[in-house]
Amino acid sequence: MTSISAQTFSPHVSQFLTNVFPNTGFWKATNASWDYQIELAWPLNWTSQAENMTVETTYVLDGNALWKRHFATNDRFHRHCSTTSTRHCFFNNDYVFNYTGFLAPLKSNTSSSTNNTKPAVQISYGALEQHPVQRRTETNEELAYRQSFLVPQRMPELSQKLYAELKGSPKLRDVEIHEYPFSDHAAVAAAALADGSDYFLDW
Question: What keywords would UniProt list here (predicted)?
Answer without folding.
Answer: Hydrolase
